[in-house]
């Protein structure tokens, strides 16, 4: 049968306009798809009206043109490009257009999690906003590494997923630049204080622990003369203007370092590192070490505190006056709750003097150093956490 008459509308329509029905002799429904939808909608709306509920006007899904999609929130038919991707749906698109989808997701986050911040914290770190606020209050609101900026960013161990503390943006980013390597952070502190192998190498070759370079401002005659003798490219001129060295000097520094970063000695050196106060060039560094030192303001105290932080030797719990416990992250110890945000400078200086003495390594290097012991403790703590996790499964 190629055509059939609908009992409701009375029109003769193609068989494709009817749904299949096994009980019928011809295998087709008694009503066309459009009339059947109207019957179902009328029945549904009658039930909703009895319950006192309001529903939107009836709309056939088949009325949407090809390449278009209906958004039930704004009640508009829009191009499919206005909808996001969703592999869970048969159409591969979200149920709502992009603006409506964002509003619906925000409403769900507010209803289920109490806001977007709480949702993101639970998704990434398994913490609630209240727990993070409690951690910030326990630190006195200050970043435990630099003791200069407010604590706002959750820091966690990327290997185990364990949340450590709340840091400022720059300290949190610096740990990532140094690949969370406490050895590299300690070496960077020695490098900045001109006590590491790079300074010793320059002292032997140049007679000074830094490369002071030449005057940065050259007259046009001097520049043309220098250009004829060394043929520097435009990059060479920028090197002279910024650091007082040319391409030949840069290659000499790179040769002294064997092509590796003067801080970590693991990655090829790419950037000229210099003292921003004096302008003296200390060496060539990789992008991570150069950026990481800059994020910590080229401060050896912050670098050593960051290394101790990663080793688990910076933040400890001590008995509080009220009988409970509180955090301690300075030497000499001070209660974070008693120090205002702008009052950490003297405590930071005293702590820096202490860590400078602790981090000193004897020239003979006999026996395990303090850093080696710290790394061993860190590995032991990771092993204990792994055993606890396996036992809980």
TrEMBL record:
InterPro entries according to UniProt: Endonuclease_7, Endonuclease_7_sf, His-Me_finger_sf
Q: Which spans are transmembrane here?
A: none
- Please report a single Pfam family linked to this protein: Endonuclease_7
Protein name according to UniProt? Recombination endonuclease VII
Organism whose genome encodes this protein:
Actinomadura litoris
Name the lineage. Answer: Bacteria, Bacillati, Actinomycetota, Actinomycetes, Streptosporangiales
């Amino acid at each position: 049968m190629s055509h059939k008459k609908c009992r409701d509308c009375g029109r003769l329509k193609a068989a494709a306009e009817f749904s299949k029905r096994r009980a019928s002799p011809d295998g087709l429904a008694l009503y066309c798809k459009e009339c059947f939808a109207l019957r179902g909608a009328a029945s549904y709306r009658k039930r909703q009206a009895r319950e006192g509920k309001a529903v939107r006007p009836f709309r056939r899904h088949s009325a949407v043109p090809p390449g278009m999609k209906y958004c039930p929130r704004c009640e508009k038919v829009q191009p499919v490009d206005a909808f996001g991707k969703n592999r869970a749906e048969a159409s591969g698109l979200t149920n709502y257009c992009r603006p409506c989808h964002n509003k619906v997701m925000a409403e769900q986050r507010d209803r289920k999690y109490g806001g977007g911040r709480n949702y993101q914290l639970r998704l990434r770190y398994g913490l609630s906003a209240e727990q993070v606020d409690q951690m910030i209050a326990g630190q006195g609101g200050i970043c435990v590494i630099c003791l200069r900026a407010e604590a706002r960013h959750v820091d966690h161990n990327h290997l185990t997923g364990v949340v450590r503390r709340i840091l400022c943006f720059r300290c949190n980013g610096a740990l990532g630049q140094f690949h969370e390597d406490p050895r590299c952070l300690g070496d960077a502190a020695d490098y900045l204080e001109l006590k590491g192998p790079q300074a010793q190498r320059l002292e032997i070759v140049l007679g000074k622990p830094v490369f002071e370079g030449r005057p940065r401002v050259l007259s046009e005659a001097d520049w043309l003369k220098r250009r004829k003798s060394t043929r520097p490219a435009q990059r060479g001129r920028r090197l002279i203007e910024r650091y007082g060295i040319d391409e030949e000097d840069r290659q000499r520094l790179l040769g002294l370092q064997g092509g590796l970063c003067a801080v970590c000695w693991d990655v090829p050196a790419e950037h000229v590192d210099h003292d921003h106060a004096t302008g003296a060039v200390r060496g060539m560094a990789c992008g991570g070490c150069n950026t990481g030192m800059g994020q910590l303001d080229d401060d050896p105290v912050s670098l050593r505190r960051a290394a101790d932080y990663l080793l688990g030797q910076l933040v400890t719990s001590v008995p509080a006056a009220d009988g409970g416990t509180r955090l301690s992250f300075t030497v000499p110890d001070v209660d974070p709750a008693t120090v205002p945000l702008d009052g950490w400078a003297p405590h930071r200086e005293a702590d820096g003097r202490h860590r400078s003495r602790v981090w000193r390594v004897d020239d003979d290097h006999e026996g395990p150093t303090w850093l080696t012991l710290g790394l061993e403790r860190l590995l032991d703590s990771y092993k204990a956490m792994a055993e606890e996790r396996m036992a809980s499964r």
